[in-house]
Automatic annotation (TrEMBL):
Name of the protein in question: Plastocyanin-like domain-containing protein
Membrane-crossing residue ranges in chain numbering: 32-56
Molecular functions (GO terms): copper ion binding
Keyword Transmembrane helix on entry: yes
Pfam families cross-referenced by the UniProt entry: Cu-oxidase_3
This protein's UniProt keywords: Membrane, Transmembrane, Transmembrane helix
Domain Plastocyanin-like, chain residue ranges per copy: 69-133
Family assignment from sequence similarity: Belongs to the multicopper oxidase family.
Amino acid sequence: MGLPSKQQREAIKTLPVARSNQLDSSDYLSSFFVSMLSVISLLLLGPLGTALVAAIGPVADLRIRNAFIQPDGFNRSGVLAGGVLPGPLIAGQKGDNFQLNVINELTDDTMFLSTSIHWHGLFQKGTNWADGP
């Protein structure tokens, strides 16, 4: 993508801009309505947002598979836990026992087909030396 041409720059300069003294009451009313609709949507749909996040646990299968991803805008093969990037939230309550069955479904032979899982989010008071690579 290069710089805009002279014709494009001229078109940008001539875009009409509404001045505050050119706005009538209906413009303010529609702006207010859109703002209120946004606030109401956030209040009503906000709690659903956490339910829509990929979450598993405390007993679940975690499938490790290849998929094409574009984390930086360039398509490439990647390794995904649970089919999402970043991996799924592993959730539980205090006192839960976790039983996660990790299933290796890697198929891209241009990458390693073996895998390992390194868990974080566990308290390691006095054992941080054993955290692993």
